[in-house]
Amino acid sequence: MPRTAKTVMKSTFGFIAGALFISLFIVALFARPTTVSTNTDEVALHYSGGPFSSTKWINCVEPSKREWDGPYDRHFKYPDSQTNFVFGPGGEPGYEEGIKFVSKDGIEMTVYGVANFLLATECQTLRQFHDLIGNRYGAYLNDDGSRSAGWTNKVLPIYVGKPLNTAIDRASQAYNYKALYNDPNVKAQWERDVLAALPELVNRQTDGDEDFFINFALTLEKPEPPQSIKDALLKEQSDVASANARKAEAEAQEAAAQAQIAVEKANAAQIRELVKVLGLNGYLRKLAIENGQNPFQPQTDSLIANP
Fold first, then answer.
1. When comparing pLDDT for 119 and 20, which is higher?
2. Structure pTM?
3. Beta strand pairing status for 74-79 and 108-111?
4. d(CA 108, CA 93)
5. Number of neighbours of residue 221 by Cβ within 10 angstroms
6. For the residues of 73-110, what is the DSSP string, one character each?
7. What does R_g of the chain's alpha carbons equal in angstroms?
8. Residues contacting residue 295 through CB under 8 Å, at least 6 positions apart
9. Average pLDDT for 89-114
10. Which of 186, 165, 164 is nearest to 175 (CA)?
11. How far is residue 162 CA from its own chain's centroid?
């Protein structure tokens, strides 16, 4: 009896081993190697995997390369080109109406613009980004090379949009709305203030020690106050223009009057000098002649009458 049991156990183990061998053979027979091909503006991360092994990082794939790897390996591609975060019409989800902020004097304003940056693709930095953020949100590129929904709807709003909003709001506390709206020099300085604060705020939002987003650039359009404020500004400008026009007219009239007075004074001085030279009667005769009159009329007391 013990001998029979031992025989049965051997048969059972043999069957299991055979079945396992056949299964592995079938898996190996039908499993195909994986491949990755990166474009000139893409990089990829290569991870091993499979039904009988844990996932492990293998290597990074540089732009413009093709690799063939194990049948169950995975590759995650990321952009190696500039990313644009657009806020305004046609912009990123949730940012189509721009970014709102409050000026130093308490006026809510809206600004449109675009923030440009690069994803750090140095191998170990990119690997850390993938492990901490990219894999969590599925932020790697789609198979066709397009940006994924995880990148557009999660990574950009969380790690760029919110810090950008904070940077704009903080920088705006130093400027009144009229200066931001009307003075291009103030607006340019405000834009520089926002850009200076942005990288630190963005990288503070990430979980790693590395700077995952680098080489920031920023373009802000002219910030706009509410329409009621704009209407009030237009009226104020119109009133100022009217007042300036009235002031200019009054100043012109005064200048003309002063010029006329100067002319009259000059004429009077000339007359005084002529009277000194010609005498009063001589001056009057001269004036009469200049006006087409004859100052020398006949005298009756010098004629012989009724001789």
1. 119
2. 0.67
3. unpaired
4. 22
5. 15
6. -EEEEEE-S-EEEEESTT-STT-TT-EEEE-TTS-EEE
7. 46
8. 284, 285, 288, 289
9. 95
10. 186
11. 15
